[in-house]
């Protein structure tokens, strides 16, 4: 189920995420970890984050099953009706943001200095202007997902990131060191990026309207939309996972100027393997798990074993990749931080913090692997309320840590790790002890974990990557990156030879 996935969609997803990291690299080169970097990060991420939390993720949960029962003409009618509601709602939210930029700026960047207040207010206004386009893009992306137009779906973000990278490069070359004038310049580029994304998505959807216009056998009146309870659980289920790192980043800003940017860069070290390995495995495993669950009504042992094989295979692969990525970060975080962010105006002390916080966040990949598979099973079983409860518990952990005044990035990374661990325990607990015994191959999971712990201890003992990133020469950096690859391969090899679980998962 993993090696047979569509190559085009995987490549586009990879390109989209990698380009997102390149955008952060360009941002670090242009502004380093200054207070202006905090402001720019908030401006360019806030529209898509709000759209994702409020509607984008929920749209997929609600509309994909709904559209499956409708004709193309009815789907267009539903989309048009929802677009009107979403544009009115997002315009109202944007108006509130424009009316209270000072309050929102202080809430989002509590560590910002008074000298940056004007720039922060402008950033909130530019984000508000871009919000309706971001919300509409979320709806259109859901339609492209329904039509399985992966080229239109994933390349839309390539458009946004490409424009923003060009803008950041332009500013790093020609902009002032103080960052004066950065917000209006990048705000214009942000609007260009989100509207170009809409133009691309609209162009990809042209055949849908032409096709539905030719269909006269079915009425264009859409079915009633699902009730508010379904929307509420969908919004919570999709929004809470995106809120966790955003909340931790906001708390980190309380430590002073630049702390938000530093934490954001450190989280990127964790986010890339999380999305490209762990969450991707869970997504690819979804059809196999759903198919196996659909056959469980029978008492046939072979059919019951299909669920065990599907869940166990996804768990082994996600866990192994999580351990491998964690090993790579623990062995070579300074070199990776230097490679990604050691450019332009980034300071050596900030690179050291990015590496240290990224190493802490690496341990959070393990509970997130368990959590991703558990949530996939809960979604298959139609028990998303437990998934919402799991993430609510994780959010409570981060909130308690932040409210108690722990604003250091190191502490907040451990808070995120603890939150993900609590969420994983809640999610697997909802599946029951008997399911855990059947589906979780403890012996197979133990081998990569033991090797990871051994590599982490050896790295600490040998002080691998102990120097600050700025002190690493090019040859040492290449050596450190090679050590990262070797550490990840050792972890994967331990799982490969520990039992047939990983080999079966890759072959299925």
UniProtKB/TrEMBL annotation:
GO biological process, one term: regulation of cell shape
Record's bilayer topology term: Multi-pass membrane protein
Gene Ontology MF, one: lipid-linked peptidoglycan transporter activity
Compartments, as annotated in UniProt: Cell membrane
Role noted for this protein: Involved in peptidoglycan biosynthesis. Transports lipid-linked peptidoglycan precursors from the inner to the outer leaflet of the cytoplasmic membrane.
Protein family: Belongs to the MurJ/MviN family.
Name of the molecule in the record: Peptidoglycan biosynthesis protein MviN/MurJ (Putative lipid II flippase)
Species in which this protein is naturally found: Acidovorax delafieldii
Lineage, uppermost ranks: Bacteria, Pseudomonadati, Pseudomonadota, Betaproteobacteria, Burkholderiales
């Amino acid at each position: 189920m993993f090696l047979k996935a569509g190559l085009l969609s995987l490549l586009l997803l990879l390109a989209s995420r990698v380009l997102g990291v390149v955008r952060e690299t360009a941002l670090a080169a242009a502004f380093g970890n200054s207070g202006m970097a905090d402001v720019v990060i908030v401006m360019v991420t806030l529209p898509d984050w709000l759209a994702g939390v409020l509607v984008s993720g929920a749209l997929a949960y609600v509309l994909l099953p709904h559209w499956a029962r409708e004709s193309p003409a009815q789907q267009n009618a539903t989309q048009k009706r929802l677009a009107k509601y979403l544009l009115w709602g997002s315009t109202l939210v944007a108006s509130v943001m424009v009316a209270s930029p000072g309050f929102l700026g202080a809430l989002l960047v509590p560590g910002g200095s008074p000298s940056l207040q004007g720039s922060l207010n402008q950033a909130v206004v530019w984000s508000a202007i871009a919000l309706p386009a971001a919300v509409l893009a979320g709806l259109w992306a859901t339609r492209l997902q329904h039509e399985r137009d992966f080229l239109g779906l994933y390349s839309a973000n390539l458009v946004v990131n490409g424009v923003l990278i060009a803008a950041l490069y332009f500013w790093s070359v020609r902009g002032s060191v103080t960052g004066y004038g950065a917000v209006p310049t990048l705000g214009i580029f942000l609007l260009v990026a989100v509207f170009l994304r809409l133009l691309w998505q609209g162009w990809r959807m042209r055949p849908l309207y032409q096709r539905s216009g030719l269909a006269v056998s079915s009425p264009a009146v859409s079915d009633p939309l699902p009730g508010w309870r379904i929307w509420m659980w969908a919004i919570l289920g999709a929004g809470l996972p995106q809120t966790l790192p955003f909340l931790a980043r906001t708390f980190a800003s309380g430590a002073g100027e630049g702390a938000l940017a530093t934490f954001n860069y450190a989280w990127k070290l964790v986010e890339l393997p999380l999305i490209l390995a762990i969450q991707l495995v869970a997504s690819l495993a979804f059809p196999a798990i759903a198919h196996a669950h659909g056959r469980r009504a029978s008492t046939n042992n072979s059919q019951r074993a299909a669920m065990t094989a599907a869940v166990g295979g996804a768990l082994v692969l996600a866990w192994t990749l999580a351990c491998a990525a964690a090993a790579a970060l623990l062995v070579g975080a300074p070199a990776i931080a230097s490679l990604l962010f050691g450019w332009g105006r980034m300071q050596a002390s900030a690179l050291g913090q990015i590496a240290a916080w990224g190493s802490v966040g690496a341990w959070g990949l393990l509970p997130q692997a368990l959590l991703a598979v558990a949530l996939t099973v809960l979604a298959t079983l139609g028990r998303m309320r437990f998934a919402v409860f799991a993430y609510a518990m994780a959010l409570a952990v981060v909130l308690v840590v932040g409210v108690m005044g722990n604003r250091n990035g190191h502490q907040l990374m451990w808070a995120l790790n603890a939150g993900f661990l609590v969420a994983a325990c809640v999610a697997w607990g909802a599946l029951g002890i008997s399911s855990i015994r059947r589906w979780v191959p403890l012996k197979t999971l133990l081998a990569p974990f033991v090797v990871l712990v051994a590599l982490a201890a050896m790295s600490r003992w040998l002080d691998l990557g102990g120097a600050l990133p700025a002190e690493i020469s090019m040859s040492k950096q290449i050596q450190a990156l090679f050590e990262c690859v070797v550490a990840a391969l050792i972890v994967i090899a331990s799982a490969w030879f520990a039992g047939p679980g990983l080999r079966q998962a890759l072959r299925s």
